[in-house]
Write a structure and sequence with these properties.
CATH architecture: Up-down Bundle
Oligomer: single chain
CATH topology: F1FO ATP Synthase
Shape: rod-shaped
Strand content: under 5%
Helix content: over 70%
Order of helices and strands: HH
Number of helices: 2
Number of strands: 0
Distance between the termini: 15 Å
Structural class: mainly alpha
Length: 75
């Protein structure tokens, strides 16, 4: 019974802490991209492309945390 409780806590911590970093990263990427577009509107296409790529990489880390959380919970 204690093992099941430890699994639940471990899974919650894995996804909670694993999503914290990417969440902050996506926010910073978005804010800096809007700032860059505001300073130089002609480069909006290039900045937007790089922003989307950076967000995708940050979200991939959150998906890894989700996978680990599910493994901890169900295995």
């Amino acid at each position: 019974m204690e093992i099941e409780a430890a699994k639940e806590i471990g899974a919650a911590l894995a996804i909670g802490l694993g999503a914290l970093g990417p969440g902050i990263g996506v926010g910073l990427i978005g804010s800096k991209a809007v700032e860059a577009i505001g300073r130089n509107p002609e480069s909006a296409g290039l900045v937007q492309t790089n922003m989307i790529l950076g967000i995708a990489f940050a979200e991939a880390i959150a998906i890894y945390a989700l996978v680990i959380s599910l493994l901890v919970k169900f295995v």
